[in-house]
Amino acid sequence: MSGLFISLEGVEGCGKSTQAELLAQWLEERGHAVERAREPGGTPVGEAIRNILLDPENSAMVPRAELLLYEAARAQHVAERIRPALERGAIVVCDRFTDSTTAYQGAGRGLGREVIEELHAVAAEGLKPDLTVLIDLPVAEGLARAARVKARDRIEHEAAAFHERVRQAFLEGAAREPARVKIVDGFAPLEQVRDAIRAQVGPFLASRELLSNTDGMTPPA
């Protein structure tokens, strides 16, 4: 595949959805074809599953059912949107991907990283982001921000201890894969976070373009 896959991750209220859109706009301004994506969702099937997962009325959902729904939405998303976009050379900017499931269901729900990764291999067919930006923010600040902009969804209703486990899992994931996962400070003002993300994506993109150039390929504009 000739495209690039960039994901943005973080706890509730960290601003990743806003930053994903700003990043996509910036890449388009540089002449790149960009595919915007989000999880769960991204397709009609995925969006229907998203509504089930985030509806506070579904509080009786057991962790294993939750996990399988996330992976079902991902399987559809990868097959219908993400992989075709990468194959045509686009840059995919995705609001959450497998790192979120590892953090939320693996650590938050206590299902364990091993079973999560086995399901990732099935649902995503081994696909991983080339670059992941983790917008790190203290849980209390993130939940407070989220509450100011919308009604709480089913995940946001979880206790603070759940979200603390999620944040710790994100940080541990970044420590395991420092070449792929880059941390930016989500406590900073929006513009500073935007610039910090660009500072991570720009050199990464330049290095990939240089690699393409050495193969005799014309790099993107």
Structure description:
It is built from eight helices and five strands, in the order E-H-E-H-H-E-H-H-E-H-H-E-H. With 221 residues, the protein is α/β, with parallel strands linked by helices. Helix 4 (98-108) runs antiparallel to helix 5. The protein has helices spanning 16-29, 44-54, 63-87, 98-108, 113-123, 139-149, 160-176, 190-214; strands spanning 4-9, 34-38, 91-95, 131-136, 181-185.
Supply the key terms:
alpha/beta; disordered C terminus; single chain
Report a brief summary of the structure.
With 221 residues, the protein is α/β, with parallel strands linked by helices. It is 57% helix and 12% strand.
Structural class: alpha/beta
| Structural shape | globular
The CATH architecture:
3-Layer(aba) Sandwich
**CATH-defined superfamily:** P-loop containing nucleotide triphosphate hydrolases
Would you report the number of β strands?
Answer: 5
**Strands side by side in the biggest sheet:** 2-3-1-4-5
Q: What is the average of the pLDDT values?
A: 93
The percent of residues in helical segments reads 55-70%
**Assembly form of the protein:** single chain
Task: Note the main sheet.
Answer: 5 strands, parallel
Q: Report the uncertain regions.
A: 213-221
Return the CATH class: Alpha Beta
Q: What string, H for helix and E for strand, traces the elements in order?
A: EHEHHEHHEHHEH
